[in-house]
Each structure stands twice: as structure tokens, then as C-alpha cells.
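Q: Hand in one record:
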Amino acid sequence: MKRFLSIVLALCLMLCTCAIACAESATTLSWEDTSVQELREKLGMDGTTYTLNAYPVKYWVPENLHDAELTQDEIDQGVKVKYATEDGTCFFVVLYGDSSTYNDAHDVAETIRQNSEFTDVAEVVVNGLGAVSYKAADGSRMHLVLSLPDTQLLVVTFYCIATEARLTESAVIGASFRQAEAAN
């Protein structure tokens, strides 16, 4: 039980840390890490791995979240996919952005740190991709920004993170984002 709790705590801290991390001490997280897989198994999280069509990125979605219809506003904002619970109260969205104004994930983190609407900014490495995780100051959502090649940012926003279970689920989903082989 102690090992299980330490795994949960470590994952949550990796993607939503309470301390501000610096680039030199960025936390590294890998989908192949046994602690991520053990956590998924202990929580009974079965799911499916998907690949985004717009960019070769793979990610895992637990079976309790389903592909949800995008609103016109979400499409206009650049949202590519959305997964939600049956009642639609908990969901996460994925969108792309242009990172040509940033050199790397560290630049993104510095910009976010200057915005009082966000807290718990942490620089992380997720499956080899430079990334930044942070929370909305009101606690309503958590963001993970992954720096992709070709000046692309992949922004993942998790809504409904108020419970420990949802926060853990979000951390496991975040840890699953990784590059896929490009289709020829």
C-alpha cells in the first residue's frame, strides 16, 4: 500500500507539482516507466492508445472517457480531440499551437509563470518531449504543454481535477503522450 501511495504521489507531483521546478532539475516521465504502468493496473485503468492525425503523437485514454463532439467554439480555438465522461462533466481536450515565439519548453514556462491565473508551474520531460505542466489558480483545470518539433505546441487541458482519482487519471493520461512513427 505504501508503494502504491508513493507512486500516486510521484505521478501527481510530476505533472502538477507544488514547487516550481527549474530547467536543470526537470522531472522526466516515461510511459514505459513501471510505476506508471503499475498505477494504471492498480487503479483498474483499462484503455486504448490513439494517434493524432495532425501530428504523429500517441496517447492513452481510459475506458471511462469517450470521444466527445466538439463545439464550434472549440473547433475555432483549435481543439483537435475531446474525451469526456458519459455525463460530460469531466473531460480533456487536445489542441495545437504555434510555438515560433518560444525557443523551448523553458520559454513557455517562463511566460506562464508571469501570469497570475496559473500556479504550480513545472518543467518536465514526458517521453523525451520537453513539457510544462501547470494548474489554473482556481483549481478547475490542469494543463500540459508539450513542445513538438517544427515549432508546434501540443496543449492538453484536463477539466474536473478536484478529486484525487481524477487528478491521478489526468497524470497517467499526461504521461502517455509520446511521439509516434510518422505515416508514409
Q: What stands out?
A: DSSP finds five helices and eleven strands in the chain.
